[in-house]
Amino acid sequence: MEPDTKENGAEKKPKTVKETLLNVDYWKLRWAQRKVAFHSANVHKFLAEYNDRLLVGREHIKILFPMCGKTVDMKWAYDLGHVVVGVEGSEIPIKEFFEESGLEYTVEPLTTIAGNRYKTTDGRIQIFECDLFDFNKDLAGQFDAIWDRGAIVAVNKDQQKRSRRKEKSTEIFLAMLHRLAGPCPPHVILENQVCDLYGDKCTVEKVCSVDSFKEKHKSWGITELNEDLYLIIVK
């Protein structure tokens, strides 16, 4: 059945929802205004519980953290002996990450794209202050694993496939909030859409889904909220 587009003989205009333009300037402003409720002071529960599925016994691997903010997940991986590469558009969380982690670091400008490279004195943590879509393999090489905690749902929908094309590791952990409605960001991506994004060149496994609804989420206009974890392996 076609939707009714007329009311009292006059054609109705379809209702549209204006989506927020999610670009590097938007996220810089969020950090500047400290509107970063998505940041957690704890290692993500999925990474702590299911890291064996991502690491599969490998030691000293290189892990990419896209749109990393100042996540303590990077320090967790570093302390386990892994090589950490983060990509973040705002300098604020990058500096705070190193200071709060008690790590000495250096800063140098990037020469091929706009931005800076922050790295520990031992070189095992590098965070690139740049637009995610400018970041490329010439800057940091290939990765053994990717921990995407919310990056895919924090870019514009028409950029999600472009973001996926940058992910050429063997293992990808994709963790994201899932709700049926509510404000953007984060975008809503359903399980079949995850398969559409990755399934042509990867195997996609839904590892778990956890009820994450809290009282504060009622202000989003929603009544349920799950957090899903996917393991994506490049074929």
Topology:
Layout: E1 6-7, E2 10-11, H1 24-32, H2 45-55, E3 62-66, H3 73-79, E4 83-88, H4 91-101, E5 105-109, E6 116-120, E7 125-129, H5 137-140, E8 145-149, H6 160-165, E9 171-178, H7 191-198, E10 202-211, E11 226-234
Parallel strand pairs: 3-4, 3-8, 4-7, 8-9
Antiparallel strand pairs: 1-2, 5-6, 6-7, 9-11, 10-11
> Approximately how much helix is present in the residues?
10-25%
CATH topology: Rossmann fold
- Helix-strand topology string: EEHHEHEHEEEHEHEHEE
Overall average residue pLDDT: 84
Number of domains: 1
Structural class, judged by helices and strands?
Answer: alpha/beta
At the fourth level of CATH, the homologous superfamily is Vaccinia Virus protein VP39
Termini separation: 41 Å
Beta strand %: 25-35%
Count the E strands. 11
Number of helices: 7
Instruction: Identify the CATH architecture.
Output: 3-Layer(aba) Sandwich
- What is the name of the CATH class? Alpha Beta
How would a textbook summarize the main sheet?
9 strands, mixed
> Can you tell me the overall shape?
globular
